[in-house]
C-alpha cells in the first residue's frame, strides 16, 4: 500500500480528511495536512500524530520527523470533491497549459462540470480542465 493510501485510510477511520502529504528530500521530514468540518486544533494534531506513529511503526514507514498540521486558511484544493465542496468561495488556480496565453486564474469557484473546474472571474466564466490544474488554493477572507 502506498503512503498516501495508508494515511488516507487511517485518517478516514478517525473521522479526518487527508488534504496533502509533503515529504522532504530523503524522506527525513514527513508533513501531513489534515482537515475536519469543524476545523483542526492542537489536540487533533496530537491525536493523529500518535495514531500515525503506531501505524508507521507497524508498516515500516521510515521518517525522522512527523508533523501534523491544518491546511490553513489558504487551503489547497487537490481533488474534484474539494472544488465541489468549496463552490462559492474565492480561489486562485494555476494550470499546466495556458488558455488564451493565461495560466493563472482567480475568481469564485462554481464547482465541477464535465471534467472542468468552473471559475467565475472578472472577465466571466471560465472552465479549466481538472486534469490540467497544477495548483489551486482558497483565498482567505479576513
Automatic annotation (TrEMBL):
List UniProt keywords, sorted A-Z. Answer: Cytoplasm, Ribosome biogenesis
SUPFAM superfamilies associated with the record: YhbC-like, C-terminal domain, YhbC-like, N-terminal domain
Enumerate the spans annotated as Ribosome maturation factor RimP C-terminal domain. 77-142
Query: Does the entry feature the keyword Cytoplasm, yes or no?
Result: yes
Q: Can you give the residue ranges of the Ribosome maturation factor RimP N-terminal domain?
A: 6-74
Where in or outside the cell?
Answer: Cytoplasm
Main function: Required for maturation of 30S ribosomal subunits.
PANTHER family recorded = RIBOSOME MATURATION FACTOR RIMP (PTHR33867:SF1)
Family membership, please give it.
Belongs to the RimP family.
Q: What is this protein called?
A: Ribosome maturation factor RimP
UniProt lineage: Bacteria, Pseudomonadati, Pseudomonadota, Betaproteobacteria, Rhodocyclales
